[in-house]
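Supplementary Methods, section 5.1.

A reviewer requested that the exact input to the structure prediction be made available. We therefore reproduce it here, unchanged from the version used in the analyses.
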Amino acid sequence: MHIAEGLHRAALTNRNGIAYVDQGAKRTWIEMQSAVRRLTGGLVSKSVAMGDRVAVLASNSARQLECFYAIPSLGAITVPLNWRWSDREIADAIKDCEPAIILADTQNLSRVAGVAQSGIPVLRLGDDTDRLIADSEERAPFDLDAGSTAMIFYTGGTTGGSKGVMLSHRNIVTTAIGICAAFRLPSRPAWLHLMPMFHVGDGICSFSITMLGGTHVFIDRFDPVLVFEAIQRHRISCTNFVPSMLSTLMNHPERDRYDLTSIERVLYGGSPIPSELLAHFMREFKSWQFFQGYGMTESTALAVSLPWEEHHLDGPLAKRRASAGRPMLGVEVRIAEDDGTEAPDGEVGEILIRGDLVMTGYWRRPELTRQNVRDGWLHSGDLGYRDEDGFIYIVDRKKDMIITGGENVYSTEVEGAIYAHPSLVECAVTGLPSDRWGELVHAVVVPKEGAALSSSDIIERCRTYVGGYKCPKSVTIRYEGLPKSGAGKILKKALREELASQSELA
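The structure derived from this sequence is encoded token-by-token as follows.
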């Protein structure tokens, strides 16, 4: 299937339903389909051709959503850029993908002003694209191969420099349908866009909501009060969060002033939620049903899911709350030893993924593609194990595993123990160089406002939950948020560099 089929279905089955609400602006589905087809025609008039890249640098908005359909409809490739990047990182991505045209909203237009001097046309997402829509004839989607590239998402750079991940129409449609099934999305959901659309987590969910003829609701930034107001005003039924967002909402003093009971489904992912912290979320937001999704940009966001009915608070099955879940329909997952053989149940190995959601490759990096996708299997770089019931447990990134005194320590396990502390907002565990042990376990913690927290509190808390060799040998108490990617993932690489520079200064 072509991406545009989902839009056609929404216009056919819910033509007068509200497609989106954005800062007071609204369109019905039949109006949005017409606008998208006119934008497709307008881009053709600007000489955008099949296979061309069109970069989009913008905050979440309905206009960006329209681009997600209009650009691939003519066989071109949408490249959403991370507006949280530095100007240099944006310039590097533009140089890498060589777009035929750039669409930027008002806030980001100045950041690509220099690009226009190099001959790449820049259009304002808003005034210019609205004019294209008004002045252009509708252009039906081109007849395209499902395996052709529809989008390039740049990875967040949590393990190094950003890479362009090529996703085909087949990748995106397969995953969008899988999301509808795995997360039991209701018919015509009201979806609040909270994660940035340049990130595959929200970007791909957008296609699911459209398929169902739901309503996209946009706010201009993640602010707890704006989130609460949007949920209450628009009766939001579904949204997705990363753990840091949920912590922020849970600890906000004005939360109880708002009616948040319209929420039916909460998708969470991006990084693991320690089991005790997840239980705390479940007790605080009693009417919300939580669904976990595990995957990566290279697997079109998802591969494994944990449904609400497996989120057990108590009893012998409560351990499943710590799992990522089971493979989604149509997805194969293996746990592989270093030699490539399948690891037995309970043994830690690398998580491998196969299915129609695996990327077609990295943009202009064939050798890297061959390294990461072998015999159809995507090598995730994540370590995990499978239990006897088929549930997958993520224990760490390969590069984040700490080896201390010859013992493997998985940072997520230690973080889970630390998160049991009631005075904590967030934490990260990483390794620091040690002449004696190779690496030492080090924790960086952010306490709640006004809370008294000491290193000994953290270390003693850990001793209750994990073996002594896994406990932090040192702790940094930090009073500002941890460094995060555009998707809200804690950037351990940046944290290690920060800790190293502090050590050098000392």
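The chain has a mean pLDDT of 91. These observations are discussed further in the main text.
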